[in-house]
């Protein structure tokens, strides 16, 4: 006898990949919150200066992209995602994962090589973006492997699944 839950795991779904996808969702929400705070005039971590002009436009764009990233992460693990063609989820997730990983990876590389004198908070942001790219990368690889195996859910990783 099983107890009903809000989410019934799909056949072969990996708890590991599902967990990573949930972390990608959480990453998107944190990104959304930070950019919304800055776009609305918040000054924390900005040396007391609020963003204006181009930086405000970047924050507004980041808000839209963060909402999109959250929806995509949710679509990878929630039943509503089954309504979307797989290719849409795959293309959008890969574009996002690569873009965010590149943004973070370039920054981390510059930080390691001491090519910039950015404040520590900027270095934290570089690692934050790199981690988001990695999380979305793992999530979409798991999704694609599951689809190739013909299972109805996300990949079952040996020793990590149910």
Distance between the termini: 16 Å
Structural class category: mainly alpha
Q: Unreliable segments (pLDDT under 50, ≥5 consecutive)?
A: 3-12, 152-162
Average residue pLDDT: 83
- Provide the succession of SSEs: HHHH
User: From the alpha-carbon coordinates, what is the Rg to the nearest angstrom?
Assistant: 18 Å
* Strand content bin: under 5%
Say how many strands there are.
0
Q: What share of residues is helical?
A: 55-70%
Total number of distinct structural domains = 1
- Main beta sheet strand tally, sense and closure: none
Q: What is the number of helical segments per DSSP (H or I, 4+ residues)?
A: 4
**Overall outline:** globular
Please provide a brief summary of the model.
This protein is an all-alpha fold. It has four helices and no strands.
Features:
0% strand, globular, 162 residues, 4 helices, mainly alpha
Write a structural description.
The protein has one domain (15-149). Helix content is 66%, strand content 0%. It has helices at residues 15-39, 53-77, 86-112, 120-149.
């Amino acid at each position: 006898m099983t107890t009903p839950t809000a989410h019934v795991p799909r056949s072969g779904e990996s708890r590991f990949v599902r967990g990573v996808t949930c972390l990608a969702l959480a990453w998107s929400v944190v990104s959304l919150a930070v950019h919304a705070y800055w776009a609305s005039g918040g000054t924390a971590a900005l040396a007391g200066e609020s963003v204006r002009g181009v930086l405000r436009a970047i924050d507004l764009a980041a808000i839209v992209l963060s909402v999109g990233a959250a929806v995509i992460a949710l679509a990878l693990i929630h039943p509503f995602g089954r309504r979307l063609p797989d290719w849409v989820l795959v293309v959008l997730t890969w574009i996002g994962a690569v873009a965010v990983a590149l943004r973070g990876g370039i920054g981390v590389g510059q930080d390691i090589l001491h090519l910039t004198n950015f404040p520590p908070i900027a270095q934290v942001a570089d690692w934050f973006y790199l981690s988001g790219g990695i999380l979305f990368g793992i999530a979409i690889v798991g999704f694609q492997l599951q689809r190739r195996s013909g299972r109805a859910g996300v990949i079952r990783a040996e020793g990590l699944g149910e």
